[in-house]
Amino acid sequence: MYIVNDIAYAENFNNKNLKIIDLKIISELCMLVTFSNGEKRIFDAQFLMQYPIYKKLQDFNIFKNAYIENGIIVWDNGAIDIGTDTVYNNSFVYEQQSAL
């Protein structure tokens, strides 16, 4: 991962057209993210706490107010954001359990 203009990017990302289209906060620093390809993934932002720009996300009142702008996740009125590639590469597939 690398940071340019306070946006975190992954080093290897194969789908430059992928966008984030929905998110749901699950818990502190964790959310369910839906991508434009229909894939849902769990993203845990804990690893971002090593970067000073993301420290404010430890405040759940800031974290829970995440929103999507231009296909990326944004917090704090645009002061904090993260690239789609970083979210995708640092998340894992969500497999919804069906009710019996």
Would you give an account of this structure?
This protein is mainly beta and 100 residues long. It has one domain (11-93): NE0471 N-terminal domain-like. 10% of the residues lie in helices and 38% in strands. The protein has helices at 60-63, 84-89; strands at residues 2-4, 7-9, 20-27, 30-35, 40-44, 67-69, 72-75, 80-82, 91-93. It has a 5-stranded mixed beta sheet. The chain has a 4-stranded antiparallel beta sheet with strand order 3-4-5-9. A hairpin with a 2-residue loop joins strand 3 and strand 4. The relative contact order is 0.25. The mean pLDDT is 88.
Which helices and strands, and how do they pair?
Layout: E1 2-4, E2 7-9, E3 20-27, E4 30-35, E5 40-44, H1 60-63, E6 67-69, E7 72-75, E8 80-82, H2 84-89, E9 91-93
Parallel strand pairs: 2-8
Antiparallel strand pairs: 1-2, 3-4, 4-5, 5-9, 6-7, 7-8
